[in-house]
Amino acid sequence: MLLSSIPQQQQQQPRPLTSPYSYQHHHIIHSNIINSNLSNNNNTHTRHQSDSSSSNTSTSSSPPTKYNKRTLQQYRQEHLDNMSITVEEYEDVLNAEVWIEVNKLRDYARHGISREVRGEVWLYLLGIQEADRSKEISTQKQKLQEYELIDKDPNEMTKRVRGEISRYLRKTNIESSRNMPRLFEDVISAYCNHNHRVEYYPAMVNLCAPFIYSVKRECDAFLCFEKMINTLDDHFSSRSINESVASFMTLFRTCIPDLYSYFEEEEVDIKEWAASALQFVLSRELSLENTMRLWDTYFAVPDWIELHPFFCLAVLRHLKENLEELEQSEIRTMLMRLPPLDMDQVRNEFHFFFFELLCLSIDLLQPEWMTWILTLLYPSTALCY
């Protein structure tokens, strides 16, 4: 199904919070998490340990009113100090003979995946490769045979696909020893021929690129691409893009009011950008490197697509000062092709954005999002929710 052609439905406001957990409980949980992490400031191995301190932290009788700036800055620095995961650490997990510790890969991937191992890690995070390695060779052989049977012959859409691939490769300057145009064409053609209900659309090239660039085997790149497209298709078949954009605009107006007002003054229609950013996971707006770094974090989290609107807001907030210096046409140009970003800084902004949102705008969040948020920020402490 062509995502942009999903039938329009009546716009709805975000559902109010109906969780049995109280507003005060959310404050206490996040206060404990921050205090727990700050207490371990001198421990350089925090990322390898379970965060058990949250269960030992006493709770106050009333929720904190607001996190002070110094505390947030201190936490920010500690968080940044613990974000580097080496190639060797990934390889230690990937070279296991019997069983791959996927949960450890998820914990590592939130901090970014080295280019050398990104493709292999993604296969486990997306469930393409099973953790049990006892049948790895036979499973890979079967997948390859099934992929080879899929029709990849040129058809009526081939000319459109080739044109879009050519434009994308000129724009991105991808360097590789592999035949990139052929790989793009084979994977996209195989997907469309294998899924007759799906129509080709240009953004498929953007969504395919990270897998073509990172995953070594063509059949695995196809399976990853199929997983991504199906995830987006399933999401927007149950929630229209109009509903998603309406929810995004509500969050934007509530959480970044100054920038929202500035866009209104400049008559910038942010809905067009939001529709593309939400539908295609920022793959059309971000550089390839930034897209892959973003997907490292996303693939580490179950139901990551539910968190994506908030990351889009974090990008806007990260660029707020720059955007407020521009005029209408310049803003639109910058949003449609975002400058290279330090994705770790944006991710850090994303974390603090949630802290503020949870304290100030808790009614904007759906109840089930709380577990996803805590899983993303602190996998080990999410169990306490």
Topology, element by element:
Blueprint (H helix, E strand, L loop, with lengths): L22 H17 L29 H13 L5 H8 L7 H8 L5 H11 L10 H13 L9 H15 L7 H15 L8 H12 L3 H21 L2 H15 L1 H9 L4 H10 L8 H12 L8 H11 L1 H4 L4 H9 L6 H18 L8 H9 L8
GO molecular function: GTPase activator activity
Protein name: Rab-GAP TBC domain-containing protein
Can you tell me about this structure?
- There is one protein chain.
- The chain starts with 22 loop residues before the first helix and ends in an 8-residue tail after the last helix.
- The longest helix has 21 residues.
- The protein is mostly helical.
- Helix content is 60%, strand content 0%.
- The chain is globular, with a radius of gyration of 22 Å.
Describe, in short, the structure shown:
The chain is an all-alpha fold and 385 residues long.
